Amino acid sequence: MNATLGRLLILGSLLVSTTGAVLAYAAGAKRSREGLRWAQRFAYAFSAMMILATLVMEVALVTHDFSVSYVAQVGSLTTPLWVTIVSLWSSLEGSILFWGFVLALYIAVATWLTRNQHEEYMAYSIGTWLACASFFSFLIAGPANPFLSVPFPPVDGPGPNPLLQNHILMVAHPPFLYLGYVGMTIPFGFATAALLRGRLGVAFIRPIRTALMLPWIFLTIAIMLGGWWAYEVLGWGGYWAWDPVENASLLPWLTATAALHSGVVMERRGVLKGWTITLIQGSFLLTILGTFMTRSGVFNSVHSFTQSSIGPTILVFLAVILLGSIALLAARIDSLEAEGRIEGAVSREGMFLLNNLLFVLFTFTVLIGTVFPLVVEALRGKQMSVGRPYFDSMVVPVGAALVFLLGIGPALPWGRASREQIKRSLLPPIIGGVVLLVLGYALGARNGWTLLTLAFGGYAAQVTLGEMWRPVVQRMKRGESLMTATVQAQFNRGRRRFASYVIHAGAVIVIIAIAVSSTTRTQREVSLAKGQSTTIGAYTVTFLGTDIRNEPHRVATVARVAITKDGKPVEVVEPRMNQYAAMREPIGTPAVHSTLAGDLYVSIMNLDGSGQNVGLLLLITPMVSWIWIAVLLMGLGGIISIIPHRQSSFAAASASEPSPATVAETPA
After folding, report:
1. Would you say residue 645 lies in a domain?
2. Residue 145 φ/ψ, nearest 5 degrees
3. What is the pLDDT of residues 125-159, one digit of tens each?
């Protein structure tokens, strides 16, 4: 029953999305209002069918309906309920269905919020969304069908991938990643509509920016959650290894970040329209490339799925979208005329442009290092890998330059600046750079790039905090109280401006924390007998013994390790080795004692059969917690920036479009 109903709903979504896409493009070409209304109805119909199909699959998983092929593949009677629910995205077919589910949510919400706005663009936008929906419906109905019937259902199943049920973060990381990946479809549809229409009006810029900011927030947090998961599960003590699938999530984030920055210049100065549209298209294309990386099986990664038949299909879709985007840009980019100009290189908009170029350079550097081994293997049949030395040597200088611009750009005024203005803006923050550089050196930082990052980070931090609170200080000088000035300047009139500096503050903290944590950690590998102790830094670590814990879905061997600091008890941590029936080798789970200053990381390397001796990896890594905190701060800033004012909404725009000069008066 579930298999049949699911197949019917997916086939219905394929029919509706394909028909709706054709109808929407026709309505856009004819500028038909009635055609647009029908396109909206088809968008809602697709969303309803895809959401219902996903709910049918969840019912099948929870009720252990092994007559459904996907449930037979990943289900198990012994799996905890929370693992059963999230096993929807634990394997290939379910993950593609979940992609369709998220896309359906985005299309339904975006169609609803723009239902009475921007009619000039919306038919083409909906057509593009439904065209993408048609492709993924085809994948779910064909090569990645999770609703196949099993003639002789098994009594029980193997359960999902043990790595994906080994930590609670798997409840959050994949959904955030999908919300980031799939969400890029919405701004891509808007960008395609602008090109097809041959113009990008000022009133349409804000919904494009909002549509891009939302998936950027999700993708930012998803990358952090993925690093946190690797840190908490894989046991090697790090959070980023330049793994191909890690890079796949970073690539669209880089181009989306560049697009958000150029979008500010586009909105305020009327320039970089074509460049912003190109970056938005690139972000969507990179999400499809990332999907190919994780679901084709061509990359060897703990994050990717096994070999599958959908890789070539996704590659064809990527090629079609790439060629179509290039053709559309070649034909229409000249129609997106600039309504202003960049006054000078030493200006805020000049630094925004340089910032964009560095982000693109960063993207190409990571992209080449990621796909080059695959190209070599395809052409020469030789396997090779590009490791951390390449990425560090190529990316670290670009990253340091971006931190530098993070301070320089916001310090400069818009438009042409005089020499006196430049000195007044750029010289005072040097104090912040020197202070943080000296502080870092005093605390033990000796790596050259780390010290340079600290100097640039201190400079950027002083600029960010100064610019963040400058409007408040100005209002207080006019007699307003601190509370009134803060509310008026940061939340009523300058919300987007304040949000941008919150994001910048989070970015500065993240970059400093990454630089410090990756170059100043202390590491020891020790073998301890029961009752034996060792020291690392100010900590004393004592092995107390082991416990065997039988859980429904696994057997855990837990090492109890007591931690004291300066002679005072801290806590007893429990690194463990988890044995799953589906895997021959156990999976380790480290234990982490976290403080704001740094983490003590305890991971089991080996454990003898008697449980009397253990080999431990001990790490003291400073500032790791600040990475997670600062990324959440960046996400908070993004949320603040898209909260509509009382008199506006996601798609609100005046009947007549304002001039760029008017927009330039609005805080970024």
Report:
1. no
2. -75, 115
3. 999 999 999 999 999 999 999 999 999 999 998 88
Closest CA to 18 of 1, 48, 39: 39
Residue 488 has pLDDT above 80, yes or no: yes
Name 81's Cβ contacts closer than 8 Å, sequence gap at least 6.
62
Q: 173 with 158, same domain? A: no
Among 498, 519, 540, residue at a domain's last position: 519
> Would 647 be classed as within a structural domain?
no
Q: Is 449 within a domain?
A: yes
Considering only CA atoms, which of 510, 474, 507 is closest in space to residue 490? 474
Residue 648: pLDDT band (50, 70, 90) is very low
Co-location of 463 and 490 in the same domain = yes
User: Above pLDDT 90, what percent of the chain?
Assistant: 57
Q: How far apart are CA 511 and CA 396, in angstroms?
A: 11
Q: Classify residue 597 by burial, with Cβ atoms within 10 Å: 0-12, 13-18, 19+.
A: exposed
**Rounded to an integer, what distance in angstroms lies between the CA atom of residue 235 and that of residue 451?**
28
Distances (CA, A) of 530 to 291, 358, 534, 561: 47, 53, 12, 10
Q: Which amino acid is at 371?
A: V
Q: Is 234 in a helix, a strand, or coil?
A: coil
* 233 Cβ neighbours under 8 A, 6+ residues apart: 163, 166, 167, 169, 587, 589, 590
Same domain for 505 and 582, yes or no, is no
Residue 410: HSE in the Cβ half-sphere, 13 Å Cα cutoff: 29
- How far is the C-alpha of 188 from the C-alpha of 382, rounded, in Å? 37
pLDDT tens sequence across 75-110: 999 888 888 999 999 888 999 999 999 999 999 999
Q: In what order do the strands lie in the sheet with 522-529?
A: 522-529, 613-622, 598-607, 591-594
| 362 and 391 belong to one structural domain | yes
339 and 432 share a domain?
Answer: no
8 A C-beta contact, residue 125 and residue 27: no
Confidence of residue 646 (pLDDT cuts 50, 70, 90): low
CA distances from 551 to 556, 580, 640 (A): 7, 10, 43
Query: Same structural domain for residues 275 and 309?
Result: yes
How far apart are alpha carbons 62 and 94 in whole angstroms? 14
Q: Is residue 641 part of a domain?
A: no
CA gap 666, 668 in Å, rounded? 6
Q: Are strands 539-551 and 554-565 parallel, antiparallel or unpaired?
A: antiparallel
Rounded-to-integer distance, Cα 266 and Cα 621, Å: 41
pLDDT of amino acid 665: 34
Give me the amino acid identity at 23: L
Are 223 and 156 members of one domain?
A: no
Residue with tokens 């309906």: 65
Q: Are residues 364 and 438 in the same domain?
A: no
DSSP conformational letter for 298: -
CA dihedral 339, 343, 345, 346 (to 10 degrees): -130
Residues 6+ apart with CB under 8 A from 446: none
pLDDT at 163: 76
- Residue 652 predicted with pLDDT over 50: no
Q: What is the domain range of residue 342?
A: 168-405
- What's the structural domain count of the chain? 4
> For residue 643, what are its two tokens?
């909260």
Q: Is 433:456 a contact under the CB 8 Å cutoff?
A: yes
For 177-233, the pLDDT digits (tens) are 999 999 999 999 999 999 999 888 888 888 999 999 999 999 999 999 999 998 988
Burial of 143 (0-12, 13-18, 19+ CB in 10 A): middle
Q: Are the CB atoms for 230 and 238 separated by under 8 Å?
A: yes
